[in-house]
Amino acid sequence: MARRSGKSRYRRVLLKLSGEALMGTQGYGVDPLMADGIAAEVGEIHALGVQVAATIGGGNIVRGISVSAAGLDRVSGDYMGMLATVINALALQNALERRGVFTRVQSAIEMRQVAEPFIRRRAIRHLEKGRVVIFAAGTGNPYFSTDTAAALRAVEVGAEVILKATKVDGIYDSDPVKNPSARLLPQLSYREVLDRGLRVMDATAVALCMENKIPILVFNLLRRGNIKRAVLGERVGSIVNA
C-alpha cells in the first residue's frame, strides 16, 4: 500500500486532463511522447504516496457537441465522445504501466474486455492499494461533460482536490490567447466563477464542487513539474474554493 509523504498536501487527488493534452503537437489522436510525459509526472506524485484518480476527455478524437453541431444526433455524438475517452484512458494506462505504476481503468459504459465497470467501492479500494484509477466514458450519460464526470467522481471517491490541467497558467479574467492584457486571477470563490461565467469547468461541475466543498486547482500542464508542485502545496495556477 502506498504511503503518503509528509511533504504532500493532499492524500487523494483527482487529475482532470483534456483529450487535447494527449495530442501534443499533433493535430489529432494520441502523441506517445506526450502520454509518456504526463505519465512521468503522475508517477512522481504517486511515488510520494498520493492516491491518484484521473479523468480524461476525448476532444483529440471526437467532441460530441461538435459533431452534433455538424448535424449528427446529439445523443449519438455524446456516446462517440465517451468512447473516445476510453481510447485515451487506455493510452494513459499503457504509459503509466510502462513506468511501473499499477493502474485500473474503470468505464461508465460496460466493456469488460478493456476496462472494469465503474464501482465506487472498488475504485476506492484500488486507490487505497496504491493503484492509479482512470475513469473513462464520462458519466455514461449524454448531455454531461467530462468536467461534470470529474466533479462527480471526485465526490464519489472522496478526493480532496481536483487538479484541472490546462494549456494556460490558470484562470484569467478574459481569454489570454485573444487578449494579451488578460489578468491572471490567483484565487476565486465558486460563486465568482459562476457569476462571471469564467470557463474553468462547466457550471454543473462547479456547482457540484461548491456543494461538496472540493477545491479546483487550475494550472498549466505544459510547465514540467506543475503537478508535483500542486500536490506539495506550492503556489501554482489558480484555486477555486469557498
Give the SSE layout.
Blueprint: E1 12-17, H1 32-47, E2 51-56, H2 64-69, H3 74-98, E3 103-107, E4 116-117, H4 120-128, E5 132-136, H5 146-157, E6 161-166, E7 171-172, E8 184-185, E9 187-189, H6 190-196, H7 203-212, E10 216-220, H8 226-231, E11 238-241
Parallel strand pairs: 1-2, 1-6, 2-5, 3-4, 3-5, 6-10, 9-11
Antiparallel strand pairs: 7-8, 10-11
Helix pairs in contact: 1-3, 5-7, 6-7
In short:
This protein has 242 residues and is an alpha/beta fold. It has helices spanning 32-47, 64-69, 74-98, 120-128, 146-157, 190-196, 203-212, 226-231; strands spanning 12-17, 51-56, 103-107, 116-117, 132-136, 161-166, 171-172, 184-185, 187-189, 216-220, 238-241.
Overall description:
It is a single chain. This protein has a nine-stranded mixed β-sheet with strand order 4-3-5-2-1-6-10-11-9, sandwiched between helices. The protein has a two-stranded antiparallel sheet with strand order 7-8. By secondary structure, the chain is an alpha/beta fold. It is globular and about 50 Å long. The N terminus is likely disordered. The relative contact order is 0.16. The chain has a single domain, classed as Carbamate kinase, CATH 3.40.1160.10. Helix content is 38%, strand content 19%. Helix 1 links the parallel strand 1 and strand 2.
Features:
alpha/beta; nine-stranded mixed beta sheet; Carbamate kinase; 19% strand; globular; single chain; disordered N terminus; two-stranded antiparallel ribbon; 8 helices; 11 strands; 242 residues
